[in-house]
Every structure is written in C-alpha cells, then in structure tokens.
NAD(P)-dependent dehydrogenase, short-chain alcohol dehydrogenase family
Amino acid sequence: MNATFHDLKGASVFITGGGNGIGAALTDGFLAQGAQVAFVGRSDASDFVQKMGDEHGTAPCFIQCDITDTPALQAAMDQAVAAHGPLNVLVNNAANDMRYDATQISEADWDSQHAINAKAYFFACQKAAALMAPKGSIINYSSITYLMGLAGMVPYVTANAGITGMTRALAREWGPKGIRVNAIAPGWVFTEKQETMWATPASKAAFLEKQCLQEFMRPEDMVGGTLFLASSASAMMTGQTIVIDAGVVGTG
C-alpha cells in the first residue's frame, strides 16, 4: 500500500468481478484501506475470501452471481448494503474481452458481449444511485482499446466507448445528488487470463514498444487510481476518464 486514503476506512464498497484479475487487486487494495468490501463473480471465490481474511483481518463479502442477470446483480447489491451499510463506492470492473473476426460475429455473440460489458454496468450504476446516501463514487472500468480502435474485438471496443459516454451522462444526471461518476481506461494489464489466452512473447514485446514506461502492467497498477477516484481526494472530479496505460495513448 503506497498511499492511505483515510476517508475510505469503513467505507462500503461493491466491486463486480472482484475475485480475480484486476478485481482481486482492487478488493485487496480497498481492504488494505480498512474498507468493507463486497464483490460478485460467477466462479466460486472461497479460497480468495479466506486469503483476504487472513491478510487483512476482515474478509470481503462474496456473493456468487452472473452480472448479466440484472435482478440477481441488484439483489446482491442489496445484500451488500444489508451487511455493510449504505453504499459509498461502486466499481464496475467485470468484463469480457473476447476476440472475434468481425465478419463472423453473430447476433447472439453481440448480445452476450454487450450484456456483460455494457448492460450490467448501467444496471449496477442504477442500483448504486438508489443505495448511495447521500453521496457516493461510481467508477466504471473502460479500456484504451476504444481509443486505439483495435481490430479483432469490435463488441468489446464498442462497449467500452459506450461506457465512457454513459459515465459522462450519469455524472451530469446524478451530480445534483452528490454522486460522482468517473471511468478508468487501462492499457494492457497482464492478468492470469491475459497471459493464458492472448499474450505471446511477440505480442507483449510489440505492445511494450508502444508504452512510454517500459514495464509490463500488472493488476496492482490499477489500484492507486481507483482508490483516488473512490476517495474524497478527487471530490470535485466527475464525468472524467482517467487513462492508466504506461503512456500508450494521449488525451486532452
């Protein structure tokens, strides 16, 4: 833990996909700040929950559900609030970056990808707005893929462009309620999934050349920016997309 955000101690935090990859690093990071964390995921996370409890003295609340099942997702958020009190922070992190040949994408492929990468984000935000009292911070994970216009993953790229638009619109709509809505656009973060499914020595070397900082990004590199947006340290920031990518793309 490189920085302490004192206002996150005791905060009620809900994370989608908080049991693996970037999400697991975020769960760990919020627990290290003294926050009360609940997270959802499709796969059993009992071992991870036990590990976090051993390390931090407080275990996160894990609720197994499919985020594309909107009633189940919103019920899980109710359960988290029942356990930890009014919601302070929502992190929409769960996503699926499947690769497709654009000429071969079926309607079912398109719908399933947007159910995960767009629909679930909105309905988690919608529920969070009802559970935050009176203020709160929503952080939506997008991706630099839409800024780069990467080929081979059109549904994912399209959804992530939409996430930034949704973030701006909800920031404007819910600003009067004191709810801040921001996004984070990571670069290529080498999670276990990425290493197993997509990364090769050649592709990693080629991507590293695009970065200003010549280090491969890991899940823990996403924690600091997320904590900052969750904290009152960013109290007057909303409707923004922060890029954390070691310097691949430029904004502004």
